[in-house]
């Protein structure tokens, strides 16, 4: 029996990963830059044994069906191939998410699984190698290996596509992100399918790729100089550009719902009233508000005028993936 356990926190991209140039290896079309957060995380333990006759996957104590086990099994196959260790495994994951708002994150999940496998099989992978491995589970997971600001260097092969921390002199500790959980029933298009359709059909996609390098540069510079306004502006504008590509896809689609628009509008109104805050959104209706820690309580209370407390989650910068003691 080979046991391992790890915890990884989720990350939210300030400059988005949107589009793959290789579906199999998960090589992205563009660099992305994220902030790892403390509010949502996954703990995963894995045990490999020759006694097992198949892989099984438990999420929050529940044995998962074939469909959700599939992603985990594909990942275990990669690990088995890389380590030349051919035993089946039991994977047990727990998602620590404040509310059941569909925020279970593939980023924290696959990063924790990569860490747990590394621990169980004694692979001694470096952070860079762990990032490459997690990437092949879910693209954004490669950034959750590290805490704080992280950039995923797109590369052009399995070897050179991985994430690295962005030096910031601990500036991330002065920031906060408030999640506005939108419960509207949105049309469910996974990030995988959304990206695929956008790359294949969106007439705005080439412009997205052209512009994203400029945004990455602006974000890096803002992080180096600790310029919150510059980071907020590029975060919000990059998010809007990503979402614009979906409207120009065929058939067109959007992740925005009426309440997402209400939240974005609220952020604009607060900004006009002098509050330093900016929004970002991913492949779903939730809106995340980037602000400075010193203003975060005030902004939280202002948001509470429009959204009930159950829909708001305050997050601060989180740590990188870490190995945990396994229970024997
Ligand atoms: O890693 P995935 O397949 O869940 O894709 C993530 C895509 C976005 O969340 C929309 C952007 C990003 O960079 O995280």
UniProtKB/TrEMBL annotation:
Gene3D superfamilies, A to Z: 3.30.230.10, GHMP kinase, C-terminal domain
Taxonomy of the source species: Bacteria, Bacillati, Bacillota, Bacilli, Lactobacillales
Organism of derivation: Tetragenococcus halophilus subsp. halophilus
A GO BP entry: isopentenyl diphosphate biosynthetic process, mevalonate pathway
Name this protein carries in UniProt: diphosphomevalonate decarboxylase
One Pfam family from the record: MDD_C
Residues of the Mvd1 C-terminal domain: 179-315
The keyword Glycoprotein is assigned to this record: no
Homology family: Belongs to the diphosphomevalonate decarboxylase family.
Positions of the Diphosphomevalonate decarboxylase-like N-terminal domain: 8-163
């Amino acid at each position: 029996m080979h046991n391992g356990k790890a915890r990884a926190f989720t990350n939210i991209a300030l400059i988005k990963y949107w589009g793959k140039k290789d579906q199999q290896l998960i090589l992205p079309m563009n660099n992305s830059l994220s902030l790892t957060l403390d509010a949502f995380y996954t703990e995963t333990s894995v045990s490999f044994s020759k006694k097992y006759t198949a892989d099984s996957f438990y999420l929050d104590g529940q044995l998962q069906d074939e469909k959700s086990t599939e992603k985990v099994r594909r990942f275990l196959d990669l690990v088995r191939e890389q380590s030349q260790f051919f035993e089946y495994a039991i994977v047990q994951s727990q998602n620590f998410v404040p509310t059941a708002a569909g925020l279970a994150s593939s980023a924290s999940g696959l990063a924790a699984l990569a860490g747990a496998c590394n621990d169980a099989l004694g692979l001694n992978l470096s952070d860079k190698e762990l990032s490459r491995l997690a990437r092949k589970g879910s693209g954004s997971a490669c950034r959750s290996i590290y805490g704080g600001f992280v950039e995923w260097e797109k590369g052009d092969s399995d070897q050179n596509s991985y994430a690295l921390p962005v030096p910031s002199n601990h500036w991330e500790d002065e920031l906060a992100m408030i999640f506005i959980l939108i419960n509207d029933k949105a049309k469910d298009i996974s990030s995988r399918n959304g990206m695929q359709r956008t790359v294949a059909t969106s007439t705005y996609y080439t412009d997205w790729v052209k512009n994203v390098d400029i945004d990455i540069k602006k974000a890096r510079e803002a992080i180096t100089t600790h310029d919150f306004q510059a980071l907020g502006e590029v975060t919000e504008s990059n998010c809007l550009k990503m979402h614009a590509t979906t409207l120009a896809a065929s058939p067109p689609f959007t992740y925005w719902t009426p309440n997402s628009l209400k939240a974005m509008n609220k952020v604009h109104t607060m900004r006009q009233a002098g509050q330093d805050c900016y929004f970002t959104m991913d492949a779903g209706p939730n809106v995340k508000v980037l602000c400075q820690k010193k203003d975060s309580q005030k902004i939280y209370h202002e948001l509470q005028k429009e959204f009930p407390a159950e829909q708001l989650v305050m997050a601060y910068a989180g740590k990188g993936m870490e190995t945990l003691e396994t229970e024997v």
